[in-house]
Amino acid sequence: MTAMRMSVLASAALIAMGGSALAQQQAPQSPNMTFFVTSAGSGKGGDLGGLAGADAHCQALAQAAGSTGKTWHAYLSSNTPAGGQATNARDRIGKGPWQNAKGAVVAKDVDDLHGNPNINKETLLDEKGERIKVRGDTPNMHDILTGSDMQGRAFPPNLNLTCNNWTSSTFGSAMLGHGDREGIADTVYQHSPISSHMSRDCTQPGLVATGGNGLFYCFAAQ
Questions:
Q1: Confidence tier at 102 by pLDDT (50, 70, 90)
Q2: Beta 72-74 vs 143-145: how paired, if at all?
Q3: Banded pLDDT at 2 (limits 50, 70, 90)
Q4: What is the Cα 184 distance to its own chain's centre?
Q5: HSE-up of residue 124 (Cα within 13 Å, Cβ side)
Q6: Cα–Cα dist 81/51, whole Å
Q7: Distance (Å, rounded) from C-alpha 118 to C-alpha 145?
């Protein structure tokens, strides 16, 4: 009887430890995480459900990883119909500073983010603190959706570089940044984490073929 009781207690302890370990795995490495790359896109190419859908995706991923109490926004620009006003990605993310899931500061403020940020293949982490696959990895997913110029601003409305304001997987293309800041040539664009080149199209296979997976940056407003 005593042996059975000890066995039950030991099993309960192991279950409790397992639950604790799982909780630790789900929690972000840094409770102060304010920047990450989505571990997954929408699965529908450039159709993210608009800016609101992209923001909700950021929020859901952050909360699933254990980051609560923050308001997350996708780093995406968009155009609006004639008479409206464009939305600049740089205006959606607060003032900074921002750090990844392991505590590395990627940018001190908005100017730093659009000047020489600490974004590279080592700091390019998802919400779980895992590194994004980049050039040299299989598959390469270093193309990050931004729809923005190098200063984080929207393009003129006659240029559909936002997959129809992130609502279409069939119309237009997307401006992409190189998350690892590496490319096929030694140019300022190839080294830009924000505005390197446009995608082949807005389909999921098209984004993958270009060198991405429909991933995008998420920032918590500071």
A1: very high
A2: unpaired
A3: very low
A4: 22
A5: 22
A6: 15
A7: 18
User: d(Cα 214, Cα 193) in Å, to the nearest integer?
Assistant: 15
Please name the amino acid found at residue 212.
G
Which residues partner with 82 through β-bridges?
Answer: none
Q: What is the pLDDT of residues 30-53, one digit of tens each?
A: 789 999 999 999 999 999 999 999
pLDDT at residue 221 in the model? 82
| C-alpha separations of 129 from 99, 110, 120, 175, 183 in Å | 11, 23, 14, 25, 24
pLDDT in tens, 120-131: 999 999 999 999
Mean of the pLDDT values across residues 194-221? 97
Coil, helix or strand for 146?
A: coil
Q: Is 105 helix (H, G, I), strand (E, B) or coil?
A: strand
Q: How far apart are CA 88 and CA 90, in angstroms?
A: 5
Question: Rounded to an integer, what distance in angstroms lies between the CA atom of residue 43 and that of residue 126?
Answer: 16
